[in-house]
Amino acid sequence: MIAQLTGTCVRAGATTCVLDVGGVGYLLHVTPATAACLRPGEQVMLATSLMLRENAVTLFGFADEHERDAFELAQSASGVGPKLALAIVSVLSPSELRRAVQSEDLARLTAVPGIGRKGAEKIVIELRDKVVTLVDADSPEPQESPAEQAQELWRAQVSDGLQGLGWSARDAEAACDNVAHLVDETPDVGVAQLLRAALNSLARR
Description:
single chain, 205 residues, CATH 2.40.50.140, Helicase, Ruva Protein, domain 3, 5-stranded mixed barrel, 10 helices, 47% helix, DNA-binding, DNA damage, NA-bd_OB-fold, cytoplasm, DNA repair
């Protein structure tokens, strides 16, 4: 199993990236927050999870091993495949997932695109005893530089991330408008925090 890759970022999209490791380009599916922190030409290390299917081999990349563990744990619930698990860790940090399951916070779980109330109930039942393995504290999240924030690059990154999760361009822009005040109130707020806030605003509609 490929558990980690270190190489040069060749390309970063909304939910994918290409990593050059020793002359081999690996395509990885990543969370929007992770993709937003990648820069072409920069060296990066990603925790990875390899999914083998009869007709496909898919590699997923994560900012750290805690996020990867949450991704793999989520798939142990029936009805949760890699795509939905990636959406879960895009919306909820490992700690947030643990708290949501342990407190039976269905509203928090249904904020994830693709999870309805019945699905959330099933996740709570099936993962209640398993989420104790997830970390208690949220891992530090990379921050956007002030120059990038000044140019409002965060808006494009958050919008792309939301659209990558299935929201329309109109909904994504509306969500960006809803969280724009956070940039003014907290200049060092990161894209990951903005993305989660935007998803929460969409869930309340």
